[in-house]
Amino acid sequence: MAQESEYSDLINDALSPDANLKKWLYGIGASSYFAFRQMGKQLHISRFSEQGKLECEGLFEALEQEIDLARNFEISYPSHCAKLTLRQDEQEFIYLRQN
């Protein structure tokens, strides 16, 4: 089982300089880092493997309400290359890939 700190340097090297936020999602069999950039009402999200390989990236829009990236939040399941589930203050935010 990989630990977040084992791969943080790989992920930092792979991220673009303007990626202002990254979160770790632990998974059984495969864990991932997600990097977020606010782009107007959309989020540009990149997903990286534990080894730092870019798995997918794209623009995502909130299904209903937008999350406040300036406040603490968690990534939850299901989260993959087409849909991302975020939790903040016990509220769930769903983002769907647009491109």
In short:
By secondary structure, this protein is mainly beta.
Characterise the protein shown here.
This protein is mainly β. It has one domain. 11% of the residues lie in helices and 46% in strands. The protein is built from one helix and seven strands; from the N terminus they run αβββββββ. Strands 1-2-3-4-7-6-5 form a seven-stranded antiparallel sheet, covered by helices on one side. The mean pLDDT is 83.
Topology diagram in text:
Layout: H1 4-14, E1 21-25, E2 32-39, E3 42-49, E4 54-62, E5 74-76, E6 83-88, E7 91-97
Antiparallel strand pairs: 1-2, 2-3, 3-4, 4-7, 5-6, 6-7
Key descriptive features of the protein:
single chain; 99 residues; mainly beta; 7-stranded antiparallel beta sheet; 7 strands; globular
Number of helical segments?
1
The helical percent reads 10-25%
How far is the first residue's CA from the last residue's CA? Answer: 32 Å
Q: Encode the helix/strand succession as letters.
A: HEEEEEEE
Q: Show unreliable segments.
A: none
Q: Give the rounded overall mean pLDDT.
A: 83
Structural class: mainly beta
What sort of overall outline do the alpha carbons produce when their principal axes are compared?
A: globular
Major beta-sheet overview: 7 strands, antiparallel
Rg over CA atoms: 13 Å
Number of strands: 7
DSSP strand content: over 45%
For the biggest β-sheet, the strand order reads 1-2-3-4-7-6-5
